[in-house]
Design brief:
Shape: globular
Distance between the termini: 39 Å
Structural class: alpha/beta
Strand order of the largest sheet: 4-3-13-12-11-8-7-6-5
Radius of gyration: 20 Å
Number of strands: 13
Strand content: 5-15%
Number of helices: 13
Helix content: 40-55%
Length: about 325
């Protein structure tokens, strides 16, 4: 699919996830075959523009093109300025967050809270599209609540405003991440607009990826939580779409190397103190469901140095390899 002048190599997109899709994670997912990786959201509030967190989120050094940056806010002028600022930092695509259900975002009338005010949705989209010369995309949900689903209306507003691709999570804000994703709604939106539509929600296997593409007619799929601790899911999905067959689980030696390299990237990106702490959740995701993982994680959480953490992970995977050559989550 195309987003403006950018032709993506496949139909696989990494979802923007706060606290997850930092530069090390985005680059890792791209290496495993994701065609595009959207950054974690950057607040449009100008008071936060120079904080350490915002500057880290705007760091794209060495990242493969095209770079897509998500911005979040509720003021059209601030959102326009944030778009310009992030283009200056290297963004080739600006993505607008109208999908985040988190209370701290919705409480300031941003994210999916914006779906309650369709007029404001239009003003924000028009302001951002008019502010930059790069493509602008939108990530949203099916509505504010089950009684107020307005994805079709928002999609038409987006198309009229010049939005060049729409990612739709198949749940309302009220649903958070509960229940099943509404693929029928995504299909209806795809049929109603001419811009590319990206289906998002509950896509956690190669089989599910193919089924969602077939059911919705979407131009691409967006993978979020299923990629946490499993960045090779993009490789697995692409292989299944190409061949109809599943790849075997990755070898333990490969996962050991991938995780240790991921840790090194996190340590280099965040530094000793924060890097050690950010790495904990990634290690937990990588090891979830594996042999003796609970005991390992409890011990790992107590480690306060990157060197100790790195060594513990290497030793854990060395022990796993004594029981077989490939990952076995059933253990």
């Amino acid at each position: 699919m195309n987003i403006g002048p950018h032709r993506l190599p496949n139909k696989l997109v990494v979802a923007p996830m706060a606290g997850v899709t930092d530069r090390p994670f985005r680059m890792l997912c791209r290496r495993f075959g994701a065609g595009l990786a959207v950054s974690e959201m950057i607040a449009a509030n100008t008071a936060l523009a120079t904080t350490r967190k915002t500057l880290k989120r705007a760091d794209h050094s060495g990242e493969p093109a095209p770079i897509s940056v998500q911005i979040a806010g509720a003021d059209p002028a601030q959102m326009a300025e944030a778009a310009r600022r992030n283009v200056d930092y290297g963004a080739a695509i600006i993505d607008i967050n109208m999908g985040c259900p988190a209370k701290k975002v919705c409480n300031v009338a941003a994210g999916s809270a914006l779906l309650r005010d369709e007029a404001l949705v239009g003003r924000i989209l028009e302001a951002v599209v008019g502010a930059v010369d790069v493509p602008v995309t939108l990530k949203t949900r099916t509505g504010w609540s089950r009684d107020h689903r307005n994805a079709l209306t928002v999609a038409r507003i987006a198309e009229a405003a010049g939005i060049q691709a729409l990612a739709l999570h198949g749940r309302t804000r009220e649903d958070l991440y509960r229940g099943d994703a509404e693929y029928d709604t995504i299909a209806a939106v795809k049929a109603a607009v001419s811009i590319p539509v990206i289906a998002n929600g509950d896509i956690d296997s190669p089989e599910k990826a193919r089924a969602v593409l077939a059911h919705t007619g979407a131009d691409a799929i967006m993978i979020g939580r299923a990629a946490q601790g499993r960045p090779w899911i993009f490789r697995e999905i692409q292989h299944y779409l190409d061949t109809g067959t599943r790849l075997p689980p990755p070898e333990i030696s490969e996962v050991r190397g991938v995780l240790l390299e991921h840790l090194d990237d996190l340590y280099g990106f965040y530094g000793e103190y924060q890097g050690c702490r950010v790495a904990r959740k990634h290690i937990a995701w990588y090891t979830n469901g594996l042999r003796d993982a609970n005991a390992f994680r409890q011990a790992m959480y107590q480690l306060e140095s990157t060197a100790g953490q790195h060594r513990a992970v290497a030793d854990y995977f060395d022990r796993l390899a004594e029981h077989g050559s490939r990952l076995d989550y059933a253990q």
